[in-house]
Write a structure and sequence with these properties.
The protein has 4 helices and 3 strands, in the order H-E-E-H-H-E-H. It is of the alpha+beta class and about 140 residues long. It folds into 2 domains: about 100 residues, GMP Synthetase, Chain A, domain 3 (2-Layer Sandwich); about 30 residues. Helix 1 crosses helix 3 and helix 2 crosses helix 3.
Length: about 140
């Protein structure tokens, strides 16, 4: 009998959402002292926190806009790596969890991927309209 692969339980999703909100508030308040986490002209957003089932590790997905600047992206992630213990400390103070998880900060490129898909769809629509216009002019 095959075993079914289950999705994440309710508790990891719930804790992940609480941590996402908490880290987002830390960024808004400027509570993290690393200047790389408050870059001028850029928007740093915590889009999702994926918790392991045992709640020991949280994968924090970060979106940086504009994402075309590699130096800015690198700087922001170096800032998160540097402030990792400060983030854990602040999360522990603000949330009442039995165990404060460790964090891994990852790039969330879903916004860039969505923008790329949208641009491709617009290009396809423009080509289809041009072909329809050519067919109408010939006919």
């Amino acid at each position: 009998m095959a075993t079914k692969k289950r999705g994440p339980g309710a508790r990891p999703v719930q804790v992940g959402e609480q941590i996402r909100q908490c880290i987002g508030e830390l960024l808004q308040e400027g509570a993290l002292k690393d200047p790389r986490l408050d870059p001028s002209g850029a928007m740093v957003t915590v889009t999702e926190v994926r918790m392991t089932p045992d709640l020991r590790l949280g994968r924090v997905l970060i979106s940086v806009f504009p994402d075309s600047d590699e130096a800015l992206l690198t700087s922001v992630f170096e800032g998160f790596a540097s402030a990792k213990n400060e983030v854990r400390l602040q999360v522990a103070r603000r949330l009442r969890l039995r165990f404060t998880p460790d964090f891994a900060f990852l790039v969330d490129d879903s916004m860039a991927y969505g923008a790329r898909i949208e641009a491709l769809l617009k290009e396809i629509n423009a080509e289809a309209e041009a072909q329809a216009g050519d067919a109408a002019a010939e006919g």
